[in-house]
Amino acid sequence: LKEIDEGKAKLLIPDPEEFRKEGKFDPSWAPVFYNPRMIFNRDFSVVIVHFLSPKTIVDALSATGIRGIRYYLESYTADEIIFNDRNKDSVELIQKNIELNKVPNTKVFNKDANSLLYEIKSDFVDIDPFGSPSPFILSSINAVKRGGFVAYTATDLAPLEGRARRSCLRKYFTFNYKLSLSKEIGLRVLISKVIQESAIMEKSVYPLISYYSDYYYRVFFRVINGAKKADEVLEKLGFIYECQDCGYHEISHTQCIDKCSYCGSKNIKTVGPLWLGNLIDKDFVNGLSQNLEKFSYLKYYDKIRSIVDLLLNESNYVGYYNLDFLASKHKTNVPAVSKMIECLGDASRTHFDTKSIKTNKKFEDILLCIKNLSYYR
Ligand code: SAM
After folding, report:
1. Which protein residues touch ligand 1 with a CB less than 6 Å away?
2. Is the pLDDT score of 376 beyond 80?
3. pTM of the predicted model, to two decimals?
4. How would you write 38-64 as a 3-class SS string?
5. Do residues 214 and 37 make contact, with C-beta atoms less than 8 angstroms apart?
6. pLDDT digits (tens, 9 = 90+) for 256-307
7. Residue 183: its pLDDT value, please?
8. DSSP 8-state symbol, 36
9. Helices 39-52 and 301-313: crossing angle, nearest 10°?
């Protein structure tokens, strides 16, 4: 074992040198999983959980226990943390790490997360799996107390972004295609799945904050009880099509779209069901943004600040236009994002893609700006 620091925690992890000697380089080969590429995810989660103020937390897929431990040490809200992993080595290491960090009031289980989540109730459940969170959605929503919260990480971008279409249908029941706006579509597909699973239990979920980063999606939901509310959120599921000829896209509440309403082409690709509501709760993220400074010690504080600013400035428009994609469809130069925003007036950047814009302006206005900016080069 090797001791490292992450945030305010000290952590024992399997010594990477040991398994490197055996020719294994990926963290998933270690007897217990620890991934330094997820420190930003955990830093940001510590901040978000602080503002959710749960009294009890379940870290259902704990590995080394780093998340639960950091929530106790840095989010300052919980008086009970439950850890769990089905891997025995992991549970032994969690115990050691809890002692090392003197975390009081813990319970550590060595169960399948699904069976544990049907036995307990908590204010906040964190699901941080390998790949898709789908196998744990129903049980995790079930484990959330009235008015509580649940968070998911999804690293299975191939199905969510429509590159693995059959897998997307199996895991998320969405008919998907790879489109120019797939980074955003992936997050909306994940949210749609969580909404559908909660509806089964007559519950509804609302995204408080959700984002894409590096190679994963992360979303925090508030969970509300009641069949009527569940019906209301289901109504915000729908479809989006992208025209493969002119690059136009449009949302729709039915799947029966047969041609592009801008150019009339039948060469369109329709994806759905997916979530067409907001990706963040602006009041929640605003509150977080105004009180972020107390977390300035975090390794990824600057990155958190910049993603929070981007999220707050992003328009609620569903989708985005990638300027490379549009320029290639219309055979123009690629304009700078800043110039496009200036030209359109009502437009914003998006955290999904640095080369894209969100705007409520008409498609012909977007094309006009692209053409004019290209002409003036
Ligand atoms: N949350 C950890 C972190 O931030 O470092 C990483 C968790 S790792 C991606 C996923 C963990 O889930 C692994 O330790 C694995 O043993 C455990 N696991 C996978 N399937 C499980 C299941 N059905 N029930 C309980 N644990 C499971």
Report:
1. 33-35, 38, 42, 61-64, 66-67, 84-87, 90, 112-113, 128-130
2. no
3. 0.97
4. HHHHHHHHHHHHHHHCCCEEEECCCCC
5. yes
6. 899 999 999 999 999 999 999 999 999 999 999 999 999 999 999 999 999 9
7. 98
8. G
9. 60
Q: How far is the CA of 362 from the centre of ligand 1 (A)?
A: 46
Q: What is the pLDDT of residue 333?
A: 94
Q: What residue type is assigned to position 283 of the chain? A: D
Distance CA 29, CA 16 (A): 10
Asked which of 100-114, 154-168, 246-260 is least confident by mean pLDDT, the reply is 246-260
Chain segment 312-356, per-residue pLDDT in tens: 999 999 999 999 999 999 999 999 999 999 999 999 999 999 999
What's the token pair of residue 31? 């007897």
Q: Is 346 left (phi over 0), alpha (psi -120 to 50) or beta?
A: beta
DSSP output for 189-207: HHHHHHHHHHHHTTEEEEE
Are 114 and 136 within 8 A, CB to CB?
Answer: yes
Residues 295, 331 contacting (CB under 8 angstroms): no
List the beta bridge partners of residue 357. Answer: 321, 349
* Residue nearest (by alpha carbon) to ligand 1 atom 10: 129
Q: What is the mean pLDDT of residues 164-190?
A: 98
178: pLDDT strictly greater than 70: yes
CA 335 to CA 277: how far, in whole Å? 29
Q: How far is the CA of 52 from the centre of ligand 1 (A)?
A: 23
**CA 32–ligand 1 middle distance (angstroms):** 9
The values of phi and psi at residue 195, to 5°, are -60, -45
Q: What is the CA radius of gyration of the chain?
A: 22
Q: Is 376 exposed, middle or buried (0-12, 13-18, 19+ CB in 10 A)?
A: exposed
